[in-house]
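Fig. S4 source data, part A: sequence.
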Amino acid sequence: MSKAVITCALTGSLTDPRQHPVPVTPAQMASEARRAFEAGASIVHVHFRSQGEGKGHLPSWDPAVGTEIMAAIQDACPGIILNQSTGIMGPNIEGPLSCLRAIAPEIAACNAGSLNYLKTKQDGSWAWPPRLFDNPVDKVRAYLAVMEETDTKPEFECFDTGIVRCVEMYVKNGMYKKLPQYNFVMGVESGMPAEPDLLPLLKKLALPGAAWQVTAIGRANIWGLHRRAAELGGHLRTGLEDTFYLPDGAKARSNGDLVAALAKIAREAGREIATPDEARSLMNLKPSQKVQRRAA
């Protein structure tokens, strides 16, 4: 099997830094990226947060914020691959598109279909008000058009089996003209469960020869899923966006702890860990470029 590419998702879009140790500022993001990089991550998946006192729990689509964060990460981790989040609810996607144009990352998330984003408490009540993570075809097409413009490779995020099948339709329709890269997002309560036995089916539904990885959301139960992904030849992802917990149930102190645990599992499955340059070769990425800081 080829070497395993490890992506680290440094921080989510809404996790409150006053409750959990997620990075927010450019310096914090760079420091956490460095820990992940040293532990074996060759890609960092990045959400941007609003800057300033009391704002770090909110997302930001300010291109100045995004470029400052990405440049700080590149300074701390020479050669690392940048993967920008684009996920947003609602039809107004000018913010994510503006960040894509300003940063031109090597990879960007492209959510490939819609999902009722739900979670229930033990008593059956909603953990948050039910909402729709809407990604209709026109929205996907708009993202793909700008990613082609910026020479950014889309990573098709798939929260359910039907969404996996949609990716092939985008290729057949001509919306995307290359071999796609899949990200099977598993463990969201209203999406695909974090079940290792589901992976062979997902791999079968993907186009032959396409690269794929697993994003595993949850606690200690997700580590068996990571191991199965490594055994089946998939690429791997972890980070404080996806989990706070190590295989033994202890709480991770940083992204570096999570990446180190994932790299250990990959090696136990017979996979060596890819460097950033090896990851570029495996994923057919364009050469890295330096993100230019913009005045705020």
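Fig. S4 source data, part B ends here. The mean pLDDT is 95.
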